[in-house]
Design goal:
Length: 191
């Protein structure tokens, strides 16, 4: 994965850099002192960190809106970076979910270190829900099988285990109704 292009806004001395394309092999920043070269490098370096209030460009509209409480710090966009994926990256993404097939990923970093990730033509909320449901379904199926084994054991043994048997039976009934009542599963007290 490599940086294809980036766009810095509201960061230190940079009000709006415009979209800057990155060369595959070599990139240089040339400019007068105090022109923003270090700010560009800090913005790229700080992609994975929360930013200080000093990082907000004080002559930007976002800064003024934040100072007058019209927006929250979290709403201030600082940098967009578009990454170009190589073949190994593409394979890794497709292993997460079959619909995650793309050439580029755009990451937006806001002030509080919050990220938004955009992949062209792909609804990430929908895919993350699918991934979550698939993983939960697998775990629930595993728990269901193990509980049935446990239930069989209790039925074949002492009568004093009837309370546990009843609880396990209730859990199995709820698990069989998944995914319709995930919240009920999480909130229910079985014992």
């Amino acid at each position: 994965m490599r940086v294809k292009e980036f766009h810095i806004k509201n960061f230190r001395s940079i009000l709006d850099s415009g979209v800057i394309s990155a060369d595959y092999y070599l990139n240089t920043f040339i400019g007068a002192n105090e022109s923003g070269k270090t700010s560009v490098l800090k913005a790229l370096n700080n992609l994975s960190f929360t930013h200080d209030e000093d990082d907000i460009c004080t002559f930007s509209e976002s800064w003024e809106n934040w100072q007058s409480n019209e927006i929250n710090k979290e709403d201030i966009d600082l940098i967009d970076i578009t990454f170009e994926l190589d073949e190994n990256d593409k394979k890794s993404f497709s292993k997460l979910h079959k619909e995650l097939v793309t050439d580029t990923i755009k990451v937006n970093n806001c002030f509080e270190g919050l990220f938004q990730i955009e992949i062209d033509g792909i609804n990430l909320d929908e895919i993350s829900s699918k991934i979550f449901e698939e993983r939960i379904s697998k775990k629930i199926n595993h728990i269901h099988k193990e509980l049935n084994k446990l239930l069989k054991f209790f039925r074949n043994n002492d009568e004093s285990f009837r309370n546990v048997e009843n609880a396990i039976t209730q859990i199995i009934l709820v698990l069989e109704e998944y995914p319709n009542n995930v919240e009920d599963i999480l909130e229910r007290n079985f014992f």
